[in-house]
Amino acid sequence: MINAKAVTLLSVAVVCLAQDMGLQASYTAIRKLRAAGAPSTANDTKALAVAYYAAGQHLLFRMLMNRAMQLDPADPEPHYLLGRHYASDVQDHTKAADYYRAALALKPDPVVSAHLGNAIELTGDSTSALRYYREAMRAGCQPLAAAGLARLGAVKLDVLDRCGGAHPMLLRERAKLRSTAGRHLEAARDLEQVVRQEPASTAAVYQLYRAYLAAGEKAKAAASLEHYRKLQAVYGGQ
Q1: Which end of the chain has less neighbouring CB within 10 Å, N or C?
Q2: Are the C-beta atoms of 170 and 163 separated by less than 8 Å?
Q3: Buried b / exposed e across 187-201, counting CB within 10 Å, b at 16+?
């Protein structure tokens, strides 16, 4: 039998970090998984589902994740991964929130609570979002939750300063607060990390330009502004 646990861990990282396996790698994984026969366990089914996800086959991903739920009704992971899919790929935050709630009903998890808060915030319910962000933070700093709390004005800069990690949402919110506090070079360092992770983000590049400009780094500000204009010509907007 295939080592479903190892494959699933690798695959979950692909989904959760929004990294691209590459079509060749994903099709190779699919061939190997299917060569072992029809998946009969929840882990094998999840592994095949995420290989299809990496290949862009989202309908098969959903179908197999739902099958994994039937095989192991106590497993919160398929609910969580479907929530991530509906939030990031479909932009259906109401449906994503439903999946996150289902995952939390099976097993409390601060990461899932943070994502539920974010999904709820994006539906316009800031009050409920704050509840889940705070719940997530009880277990320690959750970058997505900390960013949400900052965005909603519920925490100050010191909380974000203590919060490690390189989550782009956290870095952007911390950069905003650092700029407000006059710490423009620190804000720029945060935003440099964001741009490395999200090189096509016009908003992040423009924010970096503003931070450099405020810090008196004229050459870097000019380079960032030029980068922003190039991106805007391709993607539009800010």
Answers
A1: N
A2: yes
A3: bbebbbbbbeebeeb
Q: How many CB atoms lie within 10 A of CB 108?
A: 12
Q: What angle do CA 123, 125, 129 make, to 5 degrees?
A: 100
Task: Give the amino acid at 203.
Answer: A
CA distance 193 to 173: 13
* CA 140 – CA 39 distance, rounded (Å): 37
pLDDT digits (tens, 9 = 90+) for 85-129: 999 999 999 999 999 999 999 999 999 999 999 999 999 999 999
Kindly report the pTM of this predicted structure: 0.84
Domains and CATH numbers, the chain: 1-68 (no CATH), 76-155 (1.25.40.10), 164-238 (1.25.40.10)
CA distance linking residue 88 with residue 56, whole number of Å: 13
